[in-house]
Amino acid sequence: MSNELQFELNEHELEFLHKLHNAQALKEMTDHPGWPIFVALSSNIIERMENEHLNSAGRLDRDKYWVQGAELGGARKYARLLTESVAHQKSVLEQKFVPREPLNISELDGDL
Hints:
Order of helices and strands: HHH
Shape: elongated
Structural class: mainly alpha
Helix content: 55-70%
Strand content: under 5%
């Protein structure tokens, strides 16, 4: 029989800690010297897709050209969402978290 104090975090507290952990991991990833290389590679891939799409207009039929355009649009949107998502996640670390002050019972004037 153990007399140790035991506690569990509630779901909200666990979610908050997960957010902080993920934000810190993303910050470390974007601060890494390889991050600009990743961004440049992504940009180059989209640029190649754009060039291929423009150059294939004459040799592809309408449906294949449309599919290729949809793929390009999806790649652009994915890159934009990834950038926005990373920035949003990192912004969690810039927030100032102030713990709740304990309730002062004398201010309740007998009302609970």
